[in-house]
Write a structure and sequence with these properties.
- With 141 residues, this protein is of the alpha+beta class.
- The protein has one domain: Immunoglobulin-like, CATH 2.60.40.
- The protein is built from 2 helices and 8 strands, in the order αββββββββα.
- The strands form 2 sheets. It has a 5-stranded mixed beta sheet, with no helix packed on it. The chain has a 3-stranded antiparallel beta sheet with strand order 1-3-6, with no helix packed on it.
- The N terminus is likely disordered.
Length: 141
């Protein structure tokens, strides 16, 4: 019986806190997108756009693989959306973290991308070299 009483008191307390203006903890309604694939070429511009925001400002922190915080910006939110950009000039894995100023964050608000010195696509030059090698093999055979 004491267990039921404690459970009932807990439910009432939770209901009271939500009515009293406590910050709800649960899944975030924000959506973040990067303008790039997960691998970008060194020197590329990377933009993050976050939508579904409810506050006036958002904080963006860009961190390179070596742990150096490359850039930190507080951006004004307009119509629930904010964006920030950076030129990826350090090779390796990058993290961009975003947090609405004035809201307790209950989830991981970050995106990760990789910066490579070379283009991630299979280059046309590599394809032509492969064709020439294959043709040469057929001629010699």
């Amino acid at each position: 019986m004491k267990f039921l009483n404690c459970g009932l008191i807990l439910l009432i307390l939770i209901g009271f806190l939500s009515v009293a203006g406590a910050i709800p903890i649960g899944p975030s309604t924000t959506t973040a997108t990067l303008n790039i694939e997960s691998i970008v070429t060194y020197g590329s511009d990377v933009t993050i756009t976050v939508t579904g925001l409810t506050q006036d400002k958002i904080s963006f922190t860009w961190t390179a693989q070596n742990g150096n915080k490359i850039n930190h910006n507080n951006i004004k939110i307009i119509d629930g959306t904010a964006s920030d950009s950076i030129t990826a000039n350090v090779e390796g894995a990058w993290t961009v973290e975003y947090h609405e100023i004035g809201i307790a964050q209950s989830s991981d608000n970050s995106k990760i991308f990789l910066v490579s010195l070379s283009s991630p696509e299979f280059s046309i030059g590599s394809f032509v070299a492969l064709l020439l090698t294959g043709g040469l093999y057929l001629l010699i055979r």
